[in-house]
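If you are new to this repository, start here. Below is one unmodified record pulled from the training split, so you can see the exact layout before writing a loader.
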Amino acid sequence: MYKIDIDSEKMELKVTISGTFKSGDAAELLDNLQKDIEKIDLGKYTLVFDAKNHKPSSSDSMPLQAKALRLIGLNRDLINIFTTCEVE
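And here is the target side for that same chain:
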């Protein structure tokens, strides 16, 4: 599951991902995230990223999730933290 919220008053882009992700879920997140960030001036927003309950279910979803993180401007070290996991 994922949720993307744009709070124009607080100037925050909130992205929450939780549960298990498969490559289709990650592709959907990437597509929707790209559409949403085209609506705002990303440089003026603060990213609030919550992945504490995220458990990727397969390694094929990891590259797509990393692409989504790069899209919103996270640096390589943070992407490595968020996309490193043991595949169940």
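Two things worth knowing about this chain: Helices lie at 23-37, 62-71, 76-83. The CA atoms of residues 37 and 60 lie 24 Å apart.
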